[in-house]
Amino acid sequence: MVKIICLVDDEEELIDNLSFEIKEMRPEWEILTFRSGLNAIKEIMKGQVSLVVTDIAMPDMDGYELYWRIKDYDANLPVIMMTGFGYDPNHVLVRSKQEGLHEILYKPFETEKLVAIIESNLQ
User: What is the pTM assigned to this prediction?
Assistant: First the structure.
């Protein structure tokens, strides 16, 4: 079965580069990219997505809202959040992690690290 990875980030250059690099490393994966949480959730709710990687800070629907909508739809769908913000023990990110968020990646990160995290969450 083809693994469908959903990448969500409003930074077009980042999402395009990340998609290209992941496809180079794992050509067997289908990579869907979205610059909007609203568009991503529509695709996710079709039931074919294997894993979601989302940025936190986005204009229409931030990564937290997307995460909670995904969890309401399918509590088992793995979600990885990306952020450019540093660690803060009172941040919503910490609460999300305590409530089931699979992984947090702090930007900048190596694509190899993301691919390894995706692979471990797909198993």
Answer: 0.89
